[in-house]
Structures
1.
Amino acid sequence: MNQPIVLGIETSCDETAIGIVRGRTLLANVIASSVEEHARFGGVVPEIASRAHLEAMLPSIDKAVRDAQISLKDIDAVAVTAGPGLVGALLVGVASASGLALGLGKPLYGVNHLAAHISVDYLTHDQPTDPTIALLVSGGHSSLLQVDDITSKITKLGATMDDAAGEAFDKISRVMGLGFPGGPAIDRTAQSGSASAIDFPRGLTTSNDWATRPYDFSFSGLKTAVARYLESTPNYAKADVAASFQESIVDVLLLKSLAACKATGIDSLVIAGGVAANSRLRAVAEERCAKAGIRLRIPSPALCTDNGAMVAALGSLMVAAGRAPGPQAFDADSSLPVERVSL
Ligand code: KG4
Ligand code: ZN
């Protein structure tokens, strides 16, 4: 029998993204971003994002169906990000997906954006190796998770106590005048700098922290240290600051991820979310995991940042696992907890 075709819709932030998969094969991945409309504000403006989703939705679905060389009636199921994210933005996706599923008479899966980030890996690498430890690092979330079954059982081991990792990149980029979004800008600037030029602090890594909150993160001390350094150092070397700041984040993320692998005895690590596109994080993760005998999987950089393929991928895994679809109409949940994989 042919593998089911699943269309995924993602609108949790500023990307209107449609992905289509057949089983684990990616057929289309269309992304219309309103990032340029937000850039001059230095961050995403929810009202602008919602309006842009409305404008981009139908043309994006049309394009995805054409790219996949299918027709709408070939779709077996629709999946949509139900949360977490900006509520107005999510609602555009949920209403569109609900209308599409109803019109086609096909099941609708409302899925978790964070679980979708992790599941996109299954389009690139072979069979899922559940259980796995997952480091999820995006603009809105940073957490360390134990994934026993990506379609139904995710346990949070720790999370950030203040900023998300991507948010720290975005804020430091802004104070350094490198633009928005900050992650790619810092990644680029850091290429010509020295990661050991400045010894920035590693958040929550004292022996007391390791004893009491081993899998939590904090980036506010680092942010303050960088801001102080910039203020007190006229003519600072941008590349060195970017590289040293990035190194602190990468170091802490991986120290804690590998500690979680060791403590749980799970020798598999998935790194997902926008920050997983970071070139230094990818390189150091490879080195350290090889050394520790941990199997590392990171989706290709283009699939790390928000996209529709990840939503379609999770939908496809739900279908393959025989999970029941959700109701045909539901509310978006802007603060959907990571443990809740689907509605
Ligand atoms: O997952 P994502 O696309 O959206 C959310 O769900 O938040 O993540 C966006 C975040 C932004 O903060 C962006 O600066 C960061 O991912 N990011 C990066 C890189 N590319 C995107 N951070 C570090 N290095 C990168 N190359
Ligand atoms: Zn995301």
2.
Amino acid sequence: MSVWQERLNNLSIETRAFINGQYVAAADGKTFASINPATEEEIAQITECGDIEVNLAVKHAKAAFEAGVWADLAPRARATIMQKLAALMTEHAEELALLETIDTGKPISDCRAVDIGGSIHTVQWYAEVVDKIGDEIAPLDPKYLGLVTRQAVGVVAAVVPWNFPLMMASWKYAPALAAGNSVILKPSEKSPLTAIRLAQLAKEAGIPDGVFQVLPGPGSVGKALSLHMDVDCVAFTGSTNVGKLIMGYGAQSNLKRVWLELGGKSPNIVFPDCPDLKKAARAAAGGIYYNMGQVCTAGSRVLVHEDIKDEFIQHFKEAAKRYVTADPLNDKTTMGPLVDSIQYEKVLDFVARGKAQSTLIMGGEAQKINGKGYFLEPTAFETQADDLLATEEIFGPVLSIITFKTQEEAVAIANNTHYGLAAALWTSDLSTAHKVARKLRAGTVWVNCYDEGGDMNLPFGGFKQSGNGRDKSIHALEKYTELKSTMIKL
Ligand code: NAP
Ligand code: MG
């Protein structure tokens, strides 16, 4: 028995919603199953929130905000409590990683390093920054004093996906809390466990009741929050389709601020003067197989110059050997299952349709570990730029390799998508790097690397239908604050 399996056997799992500082079951007693996608077994029955819980949580969030129990603390005091939260998350990092792995199938070592490590870093970072940024004094006629200040927006609903459950949540609640808001977190029904556990740690850290609440449940909980007249802002990460709905809910209700981080079909362009083709191939493999391709910035389209295509593919196949499906509770595992049977069927369907239209060069077979689980081996196709696989976001370990002849053609193919989340290019020429980076319609451009997204200083988000607003960096604080002009006649 692995050490993680042993820890799992001794783990007691909290399954209820967290409202006004208490764990509670749903008023109607409803629950839903949380399934481990590696074993297909039920982990627990989770509280399924409904309208009663949504209304209750919003009422408490609003009351806490208006009472000023959090919003009116000195920024330094909020920072201290958030540092305490980061410390508690660090103390419980292994437990959080374990919960994330069983809930989603993500490899345990990735959960520790990236999901939980990244979440802790995010909380620390916003705690560090919140008492370091001041406001502005406007250059008015000296008969006046003009203050330009930022104030918390109020009640923030964070509706987040399952691919990096705690980390995507942290990118929302950490800046929102730092700025003084009340936050209601709605995790995906595919991955509620870490959010539920976090609530207790937030309480222990000293975050007042009503300021941080967690409502597990289906998409309808996100919908109810987004339509609620007393929710001032909804921060969403998920699919473009649901993002469009949420913008509509904002319009139908109170014009709440709507911030969207949506999908992508990110191009990774390899020019013939690529400084190190082996390195590029390794980065390309990581770009599509890390987290089983369930990454919004997945480098799902590699655009490679025709002169180096064969050599690149050879290196790519070699690099992809690092990704082997196995038990996600093993420290050495690099690839777990897809998150659930729905996502699995969706991706397998893409692969089947891809086999009919494009050229399979690697993988393509479903797999089982110990006879169970939603595993798919690393898969790659050679495609035309407008093939199904090269245009739809698959959200699985399925790469499209597209050949190009000229720089102009590469840029045109790269931008020929309604997404604009990320892009990358590989070149030894400084001018090519700058020129192409500027032309790419994407919120993040990597040059001679892929998906190096760890640094909190860089804003993260999309052009076009990949969303609006930015997570991470001090710019994320803008989403959770309103600008106020105060003019004083002296
Ligand atoms: P999704 O189906 O859009 O779900 C995202 C969240 O919205 C979940 O909590 C979901 O709840 C909830 N939801 C579903 N229907 C809703 C509705 N009508 N109103 C309000 N909320 C609703 O996305 P997903 O499949 O979980 O995640 C994959 C997508 O997220 C991909 O497109 C990916 O590119 C994108 N993503 C983007 C980023 C980024 O930062 N840009 C990061 C990660 C993922 P349930 O899951 O409980 O139904
Ligand atoms: Mg699950």
3.
Amino acid sequence: MQAKRILILGGTREARELAALLTEEGLPVITSLAGVTENPVLPMGAVRRGGFGGAAGLANYLESAGIGPVVDATHPFAAQISAHAHEACGAVHLPLYRLERPAWRPQQGDLWTGVPSAAEAAAALPPGARVLLTIGRKEVAPFMARGDIGGVARMIERPPEALPQDWTLLLERPPFSVESERTLMRRHSISWLVTKNAGGAGTQAKLIAARQMGVPVIMVERPAKPVVQAFATVSQMAAELRRLLSP
Ligand code: NAP
């Protein structure tokens, strides 16, 4: 009988690293991507793209595709797919793990205000704020609607609407260096940084630059996700899967 495949719910660097590690070890892995990014960086091993059709659709997929363990390695802000994974794995009795990079924590010298949503982040900015906005293309609307703030909106792919003239659009992929973040913030006279607590090293440089320059930060905090066994690093997650799958 064919070995059960490991399903990685992906869309993150950690998901790609886990897929590469397990594939190199000869373990049967399939990564699932939502299919929302036009040119995603593809992981090693098998890949499927597109939604499952809710928790029930995912449960059907898990059974029909011969999946064993499921690793939810989605982005900390992708709340819906994590809830669906929890429900679906419960329904078909499959083990579910989460691979999740730890959240950033404020350090000495940081001027952070935590807020629960992008809308509240937009409301918290003072009139005239010059903002470096790094929260993804789907959540820029409340900032653009303000009319009395401007700055730089950085994202990987173009937003659905053109930005107002007080905003500069930057289409860039991480990682970024502290020096380049400082240069960007200086060049655009940035007085506020708005970001979401994604965690991870690739996008942390802006927080260090803000600390060094005394720029206050509005931090959108992570949504709640179902409680499952979680691992913070790819190597810890891989070790657990090896243990689980060893004869
Ligand atoms: P979401 O709100 O949690 O999910 C929305 C719907 O997209 C889900 O109900 C599911 O559709 C589908 N979906 C999401 N992730 C999927 C996956 N890995 N494989 C198959 N279907 C998936 O997710 P999101 O915030 O839109 O994020 C979408 C993807 O982008 C995620 O895979 C995530 O890891 C990645 N990402 C998100 C962010 C972010 O800030 N949210 C940042 C970087 C990367 P069905 O209900 O039809 O199954």
